[in-house]
Specification:
Length: about 375
């Protein structure tokens, strides 16, 4: 581990095409602004590429090779660039509701490219207890998942912008913590062909003053319309926040492959957990998606559903993997996601990205070619 006085920092920010990128620095003078090349991440032309990243939030990491993890906003001259983080921030400011969100992150732990154990769902062991002890208060739950060497951690429930920031920090924290122990943290969507895929499930709910908008004992009309908006506009667009490797988990090991929703249904794209306060869980994203853009698309689509009183499809109270007649499929590749998106004239993503929409699509097409 580096000396604290050296102040090794990882600066991070979202690229236009949905990757979380950054640079390592040694911050000797406690600076807050750092020059970057905007053209390489989609926010500038090569002939006019100079910009800077400004630290807006910093997390201390007690383990491994980086002292702190920094979330940055991007600027061109003095103008703030409308990154996915800025888009999410604007959506949360504009709505009359208070939005709550959280995420659950699945991942594999490996040694020599092999899972570290041969255990299954909810299996317990002493190392797991120690890991959870060491990693709190940054996570509030940890358990073994279905795959060999596969685990899940959960974070607090709160402001979606703060939760998206925290989800990125927690991934870096896990990577460094396990690196110190000779273990590799692997957050790819499908690292092993014959084992379960890894997702990043997003939870959402709304409050209006002191009232839970989705209800407590039973689902409200607003909750049904929120689900309707996500089913109509959000899920297809959400797949564009991911990379081509993400689609290999769809239909495999509780990863949804059809536009669907259901109470307590883990085969559906949207699950309504059995809880005292009604929330929704979106099971489509994976750990390498842009969490800012994912939250933004889902919230915008859901709020549109409430405004336009959009009805969701009929509830799927069956195993969607085995019975899906009449359900609309999700894209099975990035190429298919791009094609469906281009054929859709009523795009939430186009509205959110504005002038950056066309460059976003071009970067996604290049991403597809480089897969």
């Amino acid at each position: 581990m580096q000396e604290k006085s050296e102040n090794h920092i990882l600066l991070t920010f979202p690229s236009l095409d949905g990757r979380i990128v950054g640079k390592h620095i040694i911050n000797k003078d406690d600076k807050k602004e750092f020059r970057i090349d905007l053209s390489s991440i989609g926010f500038g032309k090569i002939h006019d590429s100079d910009g800077y990243a400004k630290i807006v939030k910093e997390f201390t990491i007690p383990y491994g090779f980086i002292n702190s993890f920094a979330i940055c906003d991007l600027f061109k001259n003095e103008r703030k660039i409308r990154t996915s983080r800025e888009i999410l921030k604007d959506i949360l400011k504009e709505t009359k509701f208070t939005v709550f969100g959280s995420s659950e992150l699945e991942f594999y732990l490996t040694r020599n490219n092999k899972p570290i154990d041969q255990m299954g769902y909810f299996d317990i062991h002493s190392d797991l207890s120690k890991w959870f002890h060491d990693l709190t208060p940054h996570i509030n739950v940890m358990h073994h998942e279905n795959g060999n060497g596969q685990y899940e951690v959960g974070t607090d429930y709160g402001n979606p912008l703060e939760m998206a920031d925290k989800s990125l920090f927690v991934k870096q924290l896990l990577e460094q913590y396990f690196y110190d122990q000779g273990i590799k943290f692997d957050d790819r969507a499908k690292p092993f062909r014959n084992d379960f895929g890894s997702g990043m499930h997003i939870h959402l709910s709304l409050k209006n003053h002191n009232e839970w908008v989705f209800g407590t004992d039973k689902m409200t009309d607003e909750m049904m319309h929120f689900i309707g908006g996500i089913c109509s506009f959000g899920l297809h667009e959400l797949t564009l926040t991911m990379n081509n490797g993400s689609f290999s988990r769809f239909g495999e090991g509780e990863a949804p492959n059809f536009i669907s929703w259901g109470n307590s249904n883990r085969s559906a794209a949207i699950r309504v957990p059995n809880s005292n306060v009604k929330i929704i869980e979106i099971r489509v994203p994976d750990p390498r998606c842009d969490p800012f853009l994912a939250f933004a698309i889902l919230i915008k689509a859901g709020l549109r559903g409430i405004k336009e009183q959009i009805k969701p499809p009929n509830e799927s109270n069956f195993n969607v993997y085995k019975k899906n007649t009449g359900l609309a499929p999700l894209p099975r590749s990035l190429g298919e996601a791009i094609k469906i998106h281009q054929e859709n004239c009523d795009s939430i993503l186009k509205n959110l990205l504005g002038d950056f929409y066309s460059p976003f699509l071009e970067m996604k097409k290049k991403q597809l070619l480089n897969t």
